[in-house]
Design brief:
Oligomer: homodimer
Number of helices of chain A: 9
Strand content of chain A: under 5%
Structural class of chain A: mainly alpha
Largest interface: A-B, 37 and 37 residues
Distance between the termini of chain A: 62 Å
Chain lengths: ~200, ~200
DNA sequence: TCATTAAAATGAGCGTGATCATTTTATCTT
DNA sequence: AAGATAAAATGATCACGCTCATTTTAATGA
């Protein structure tokens, strides 16, 4: 029993490592599930016993990193940072963790954390979104902000957040410094909006 | 020769009308290209002689409406509206035209006008984006705005714009009034940002 | 030790969007 | 009117993500 469970984890890891390697080198769309299975040394069908879809498999890789990034943030944050600094730290912590996967972040997040559907067919994406938004809500609450309806702040935030990730994923400026600039603007915009709605 | 060209247009129209009908009733993803071809009375392969992909076919429908909406805007706008009003009029004119297609706008725009890729495999989407952004740039220029880098204002705008379309496409509030509220906030945010960057 | 049985792996097969060699149709030439 | 030529339609076929009936593996109990 114990052996079996460990073996299962090992297989899941083999699949994840194979997918990581191929997505990074060949790209997300150009990697087939048959290739991943072959690289992992299993049958095609077995892959789907572990991950219900190619999308979910890819998102599992990213979800883990985003989650780690959020933990980095919780570890680093201090109580005397202001609202904007808190948000900046959260987002940049996630992005730092995502760096190795930058090449295939786009097509995966586009469908799993889409602006266009609150519920996707990818649980890993849905929970990543929910957890990130909860972290943001906590930050807002800690700073006593938000004078606007929740659906407005959530929609605005998610648009700006995805915009940052999208920009970053194809940012070819040195050290992705343009992404930093965009983050500054986006976060300031959001801060102003929820603290001073009439502006 | 003339007859042939007219016949071609007629076939293209048959395909568009068949697709429109099916996308609206069955949904975008649940409609197969074989169904569309059957409904249009042609072979499956023929469909792809007219539209290189299902995505492009769907986007052709939306691109036409968005383009019409933009023309509506050009017709209605007056020189003494302020910047925010201009933007509001542009976006709401497009949305009005898109109303009949609301049910399948999401999955199509998500991939054809994605935040995550400037160039998609859908020319109709690429040019719709380019033309809309040009209209916005013209509005900005007409009002003598923009004190921030172009890549920042473009990224910010596109995030907010897609956020509005995404929200609208699933907005179940009466008369989509929540969408109007989101538009107000989004546009004000954008206006403030490009006119007074330090805020 | 060897049945029993539940879990896990397997790969043939499905429906999809898309391709392309072939066939059909329509126009032009003589 | 018949032949030549180009354009357009066709549907068998492909590769893909994914499913599922079957086979294989391994833990359990007599």
């Amino acid at each position: 029993m114990r052996i079996t469970k460990e073996a299962k984890k090992k297989t899941a890891q083999k699949i994840l490592r194979a997918a990581e390697k191929l997505f990074t080198s060949v790209g997300y769309k150009d990697t087939t599930t048959r290739q991943i299975a072959e690289q992992a040394g299993i049958a095609t069908g077995t892959l789907f016993n572990y991950f219900p879809s190619k999308e979910t498999l890819a998102m599992s890789l990213l979800a883990e990193e985003i989650s780690q990034g959020r933990e980095d943030y919780f570890r680093r944050r201090s109580d005397d940072e202001d609202f904007s600094e808190d948000l900046f730290l959260l987002i940049s912590s996630e992005i730092r963790r995502l760096k190795p996967y930058r090449k295939f972040v786009g097509p995966v997040l586009e469908s799993t954390m889409s602006l266009f559907s609150k519920e996707t067919s990818c649980p890993a994406g849905d929970s990543t979104r929910a957890e990130h938004l909860q972290a943001v809500r906590d930050i807002i609450h800690n700073h006593g902000y938000s004078k606007i309806p929740d659906y407005i702040s959530t929609s605005l935030y998610w648009s700006l957040y995805l915009g940052i990730l999208a920009f970053w994923s194809t940012d070819e400026s040195r050290n992705q410094e343009e992404t930093l600039a965009l983050m500054d603007y986006s976060i300031n915009v959001f801060t102003q909006t929820i603290s001073n709605p009439t502006l």
